[in-house]
């Protein structure tokens, strides 16, 4: 369940980063319209909230919330490094993180 939470958090942060001026061209290869940015931001926050579910389901609300906060930290650091030094690899990793996170969650359940 921890892998599912980590991958979903990575995907959520990637969607939020794609909605920002600084990273949208690196991740999307184009300048999206304002509506697309709002949708990406909302989807990113929704996926971050979804990442809380598998750890709460596995470890309960108290430990799950702490693990979720740790997963948010562990997901943000590699994404920040990838966006800085390897934006093309960041795009591929963000695109792969959501389906892999959902797969990990499905296999663990």
Describe the overall structure.
This protein is mainly alpha-helical. Helices cover 91% and strands 0% of the residues. The chain has four helices and no strands. The chain has helices at residues 2-18, 21-28, 34-85, 87-108. The radius of gyration is 14 Å and the shape is elongated. The N and C termini lie close together (8 Å). The model has no long low-confidence stretch (mean pLDDT 92).
In short:
With 109 residues, this protein is mainly alpha-helical. It is built from four helices and no strands.
Strand content: under 5%
Helix and strand element order: HHHH
Number of strands: 0
Radius of gyration: 14 Å
Low-pLDDT parts are none
Helical segment count: 4
Tell the overall outline. elongated
N- to C-terminal distance: 8 Å
Helical percentage: over 70%
The major β-sheet equals: none
Helix-strand category: mainly alpha
Could you tell me the mean pLDDT? 92
Key features?
91% helix; elongated; mainly alpha; 109 residues; 4 helices
How is this fold's topology laid out?
Blueprint: H1 2-18, H2 21-28, H3 34-85, H4 87-108
